[in-house]
Write a structure and sequence with these properties.
The chain is 35% helix and 19% strand. By secondary structure, it is of the alpha/beta class. The chain has two domains: 2-151, Glycogen Phosphorylase B (Rossmann fold); 189-334, Glycogen Phosphorylase B (Rossmann fold, 3-Layer(aba) Sandwich), CATH 3.40.50. The protein has a six-stranded parallel beta sheet, sandwiched between helices.
Length: 339
Amino acid sequence: MRILLIKTSSLGDIIHNLPVASDIARHLPEAQIDWVVEENFADVPRLHPAVQRVIPVAIRRWRKALLKQATWQEIKAMRELVRGVHYDAVIDTQGLIKSAWLARKARGVKHGMDSASAREPLAARFYDVRHPVARAEHAVTRNRLLAAAALGYTLTGAADYGLAQAEIAVSPAPTCGKSGVTEGVPVPIVTLLTATSRDDKLWPEAHWVALGDWLQQQGFAAQLPAGSARERERAERIAGQIPGATVAPPSSITQLAAAMQPAACVIGVDTGLVHLAAALGRPTVALYCASVPALTGVMPDVRCPNGALNLGEAGAPPSVAQTIAAVSRLLPQLRQPPT
């Protein structure tokens, strides 16, 4: 049995779709799973052991270069790839016109949400079979319910992102420098994800410094990943005020996963990486300042069922005290070595 999943972007949405591959592998162990995804995020489905083939697309880039011959050559090559296999089911969990258009390129019965359920109602016209999926459910659950309806199994159990067996090279834990812990002795790391795509989603720098100071007093060292030059400037300002804190170099998604996998805890703003942390089974605290987490907040992996907390919402960001209280609830778990 061959199944094609369509979930192209963004990073958080793709992570929310990983449990679909786990469900299929559990209920239909003979199934072979392929996945169409934006090229920038192709490393994420590749981490899932049940995904046999990842088919990268570049819709974002293609839109900006529709008059170039190279663009149409890439589109043709993509179409040949997805049409080279007859799929028993093509499942578009994204529910957008662009993803439905990609689904139509494949050979096989196309499944998607009906017009009342899809994010873009017109997308439903592209599917052969349309399924109702309650909008009030969390995004992870909506993806899982759609796949279960398309493939005829009953959804059971908690979300399993499938990364427990992922082959991710883990770097050794950094040693402590200025944190006051004995020099050269490895200390538990807490990853602070301070960057996000929108300024209104940022948590104040002073809040990060206060949180980092408290973590240092509890015996943890803070590590701050940062990508762009602007993100690095911000991370370096914050880290410079926290004893023992370090700023990680720009990294690929796989490298960031490797860096977060041994972390005692991950605390981050509304960004795809905070969802990756939860998917890796790390205790995770997500901070919301400009969006509502009810439908798209972090959902824990089955390995860490009580280890994902969402704080704040649009117009009501969490305070430092609220964040420290949430992390304190996880402290017994944090002091255990990562599995």
